[in-house]
Amino acid sequence: METLNPPLTQAEKNWRAKARCVGFDTNEFFPAKGVNSRFIKEFCHECPVARECLDFALDNFLEHGVWGGTSPDERSAIRNGRKAHPYATVRR
User: Fold this and answer.
1) pLDDT tens digits along 9-31
2) What is the CA radius of gyration of the chain?
3) Which of 74, 16, 22, 26 is nearest to 49 (CA)?
4) Chain-wide mean pLDDT for the chain?
5) Angstrom distance (rounded) from CA 33 to CA 59
6) Cα dihedral sign for 66, 45, 18, 23?
7) Is 72 left (phi over 0), alpha (psi -120 to 50) or beta?
8) Is the Cα torsion angle 75, 81, 86, 91 positive or negative in sign?
9) Which residue, among 54, 56, 48, has the nearest Cα to 22 in the 3D structure?
10) Would you say residue 28 lies in a domain?
11) pLDDT grade, residue 1 (50/70/90)?
12) SS (HEC) of the chain
């Protein structure tokens, strides 16, 4: 079950402050169903904290939006072992 607005630790606040999306309209990261999210996912892949963002989404079972360059379906596949974690080689 998705945690809505999970409380942030100081470490999470720190990495979020370094995110490429700081200052962007967050609606851009929650495209309507059927809208191509390729551009925003590519934007995320160039972010210096994409791994932390994806890990946050996985840890909190976030089921909506683009997090760390992944869609909800991609995160579900990662959690269920059907897809490799895209940052596995650098994951903590």
Assistant:
1) 899 999 999 999 999 988 899 99
2) 12
3) 16
4) 87
5) 23
6) negative
7) alpha
8) positive
9) 48
10) no
11) low
12) CCCCCCCCCHHHHHHHHCCCCCCCCHHHHCCCCCCCCHHHHHHHHCCCCHHHHHHHHHHCCCCCCCECCECHHHHHHHHCCCCCCCCCCCCC
Place of tokens 């683009």: 66
* Residue 78, pLDDT above cutoff 80: yes
For residue 66, with 0-12 CB atoms within 10 Å meaning exposed, 13-18 middle and 19 or more buried, which class applies?
buried
Within-domain flag for 69? yes
- Looking up tokens 């909506």 gives 64
Quote the domain boundaries for residue 68. Answer: 36-86
Number of domain units in the chain: 1
71 lies in a domain?
yes
